């Protein structure tokens, strides 16, 4: 059986503080259960949760992935920005132009994210997190489409995007040039399998698609740690 996207994980210097920030920005509730650790839950049970994993590694350079938050109106965009600033976020400059409609911010741990203008058609109907926008190749977009069995909803000029058949957040890859990877990513995917599924078989399927296992064995909580074709870390949880 194919694994599903269980969580987007943040490596965080202060997991509980970062969870409170994102819970406040998104209006998501905290997870309740020992298997979740520090996490917040989406309003839709079909969506992914966000987990915050402890890390002592300092942030160096721009993240390879960031959230694009949606807006229903200019007033809603302003409210989201104001709420993020009140909770400890800040404005940052990543080279955006003054005429561009999105607002670029960083959370209290320095992770970049954007609050997108209300008339963005590509993110229409996706929910509060319109996209996880990633720096990556066309090939890695194809890999994740096959890995998650999510169809491609964009494949042009070596840029790709996928979305669950049930809708919701899109995952996008911007194509070349892709900046060199330096150190472990601060955002990563965590996959999960249905109860009773054969994890070894699923790991074999992911390897056949182009993933590799790391040589670190199982991580915290029995998570098998892997790399996608672009060298991005991800994990596969034990079936419950």
UniProtKB/TrEMBL annotation:
<dbReference type="InterPro" id="IPR037523">
    <property type="entry name" value="VOC_core"/>
</dbReference>
<keyword id="KW-0223">Dioxygenase</keyword>
<dbReference type="InterPro" id="IPR041581">
    <property type="entry name" value="Glyoxalase_6"/>
</dbReference>
<feature type="domain" description="VOC">
    <location>
        <begin position="125"/>
        <end position="239"/>
    </location>
</feature>
<dbReference type="GO" id="GO:0051213">
    <property type="term" value="F:dioxygenase activity"/>
</dbReference>
<keyword id="KW-0560">Oxidoreductase</keyword>
<protein>
    <submittedName>
        <fullName>Glyoxalase/Bleomycin resistance protein/Dioxygenase superfamily protein</fullName>
    </submittedName>
</protein>
<dbReference type="Pfam" id="PF18029">
    <property type="entry name" value="Glyoxalase_6"/>
</dbReference>
<dbReference type="InterPro" id="IPR029068">
    <property type="entry name" value="Glyas_Bleomycin-R_OHBP_Dase"/>
</dbReference>
């Amino acid at each position: 059986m194919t694994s599903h996207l269980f969580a987007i994980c943040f490596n965080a210097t202060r997991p509980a503080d970062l969870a409170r920030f994102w819970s406040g920005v998104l209006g998501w509730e905290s997870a309740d259960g020992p298997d979740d650790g520090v996490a917040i839950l989406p309003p839709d049970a079909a969506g992914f949760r966000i987990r915050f994993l402890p890390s002592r590694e300092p942030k160096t350079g721009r993240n390879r992935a960031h959230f694009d938050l949606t807006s229903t109106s200019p007033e809603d965009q302003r409210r989201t920005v104001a709420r993020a600033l009140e909770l400890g976020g800040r404005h940052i400059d990543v080279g955006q132009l003054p005429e561009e409609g999105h607002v670029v911010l960083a959370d209290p741990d320095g992770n970049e994210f954007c609050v997108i203008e209300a008339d963005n058609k590509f993110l229409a109907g996706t929910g509060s997190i319109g996209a996880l926008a990633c720096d990556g190749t066309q090939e890695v977009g194809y890999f994740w489409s096959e890995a998650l069995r999510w169809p491609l909803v964009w494949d042009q000029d070596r840029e790709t995007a996928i979305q669950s058949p049930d809708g919701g957040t899109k995952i996008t890859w911007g194509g070349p040039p892709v900046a060199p990877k330096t150190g472990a990513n601060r955002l990563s995917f965590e996959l999960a399998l249905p109860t009773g599924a054969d994890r070894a078989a699923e790991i074999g399927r992911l390897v056949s698609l182009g993933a590799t296992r790391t040589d670190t064995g199982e991580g915290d909580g029995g998570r098998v740690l892997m790399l996608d074709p672009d060298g991005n870390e991800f994990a596969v949880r034990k079936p419950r």
